[in-house]
């Protein structure tokens, strides 16, 4: 049996502050969860990264609208390097693609080349060494024209060399990693600190409606069988809270939107949980219950099928899983940024326009 050793962090002011803060998640357990599959079964780990790859592509599409160069970029909570991989691997045009889909794919591949040419140095930071270095020898790494740096560091502690230099990065990108941070306001403030003035922060995280099918099924099953509920699924940030979090961290000119990605075709609730486990996205709440009774699981599976199941033409019922993705963009404040005109300085009457 393989065992992952828990890594010791050096005692510092940052670690003391971390111990004193109110924690929701067990970060040591989360590190083990994220590292297990990449270590024991790398191919399965790659196979189950469809969600991170999809979000990385959507991030690339948004980056394509920003015309400035980003010489020094930080991929914060980079996982195995989904952003780097999707920048360097050409997206294939489906055989049955229509004209519009073909042109969109061609534009995406062109955007990838343009973005790659803008980035001279990409620093990838992740707490899991097994995940971070899983694909370090893959061929796509040699396609990237710039320099790639991989750094193993706890995303909650900004004492590592890659996270400690103020005003160091032109852009910080974070895809689907911030939802496991205990003190999200402090982490966002630290990201703002390491950005250069007028630097870009672009992030994604799971929103509050993620896996609502699984949540409701487990809650109803536990209420029925045990007369109460346990925290089986992680608490998540709501879309309405993102703006205040970014403003509090010092970002301006915010752009926030959300999109649901629905993954269908799961035969049962166990298959949904297996995928979450392979992704390293299973529950790590400190107050979690470590045991799910068999009768509760069976009841949850039937509730899932009854309330959310999708029946095909042959009458076979499969289960969907909805992932609510919040996309956010913020800019570090700078004297050079565009500012609104003073109140009352307008020269055109809106009545004339309308």
Automatic annotation (TrEMBL):
One of its GO terms (molecular function) is methyltransferase activity. Signal peptide: none annotated. InterPro entries: Malonyl-ACP_OMT, SAM-dependent_MTases_sf. GO terms for biological process: methylation; mitochondrial respiratory chain complex I assembly. Keywords: Methyltransferase, Transferase. It comes from the Eukaryota. It holds the Pfam family Methyltransf_23. The keyword Chloroplast does not apply. GO terms for cellular component: mitochondrion. This is Methyltransferase type 11 domain-containing protein. The lineage of its organism: Eukaryota, Fungi, Dikarya, Ascomycota, Saccharomycotina.
């Amino acid at each position: 049996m393989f065992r992952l050793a828990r890594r010791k962090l050096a005692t510092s002011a940052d670690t003391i502050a971390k111990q004193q803060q109110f924690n929701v998640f067990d970060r040591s357990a989360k590190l083990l969860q994220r590292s297990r599959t990449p270590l024991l079964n790398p191919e399965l780990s790659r196979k189950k990264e469809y969600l991170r790859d999809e979000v990385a592509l959507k991030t690339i599409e948004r980056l394509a609208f920003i015309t400035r160069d980003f010489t020094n970029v930080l991929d914060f909570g980079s996982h195995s390097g989904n952003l780097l991989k999707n920048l360097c691997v050409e997206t294939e045009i489906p055989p049955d693609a229509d004209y519009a889909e073909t042109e969109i794919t061609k534009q995406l591949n062109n955007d990838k080349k343009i973005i790659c040419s803008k980035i001279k140095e990409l620093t990838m930071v992740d707490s899991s060494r097994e995940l971070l270095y899983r694909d370090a020898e893959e061929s796509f790494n040699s396609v990237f024209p710039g320099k790639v740096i991989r750094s193993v560091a706890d995303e909650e502690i900004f004492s590592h060399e890659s996270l400690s230099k103020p005003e160091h990065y032109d852009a910080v990108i974070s895809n689907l990693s911030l939802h496991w941070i205990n003190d999200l306001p402090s982490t966002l403030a630290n990201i703002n600190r390491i950005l250069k003035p007028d630097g870009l922060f672009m992030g994604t995280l799971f929103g509050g409606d993620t896996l609502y099918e699984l949540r409701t099924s487990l809650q109803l099953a536990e209420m029925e069988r045990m007369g109460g509920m346990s925290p089986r699924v992680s608490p998540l940030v709501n879309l309405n809270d993102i703006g205040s979090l970014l403003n509090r961290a010092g970002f301006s000119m915010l752009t926030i939107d959300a999109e649901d990605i629905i993954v269908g075709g799961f035969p049962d609730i166990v298959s949904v949980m297996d995928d979450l486990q392979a992704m390293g996205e299973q529950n790590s709440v400190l107050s979690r219950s470590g045991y799910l009774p068999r009768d509760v699981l069976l009841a949850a599976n039937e509730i899932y099928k009854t309330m959310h199941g999708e029946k095909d033409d042959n009458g076979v019922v499969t289960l969907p899983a909805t992932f609510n993705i919040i996309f956010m963009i913020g800019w570090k404040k700078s004297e050079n940024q565009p500012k609104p005109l003073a109140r009352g300085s307008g020269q055109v009457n809106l009545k004339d326009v309308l």
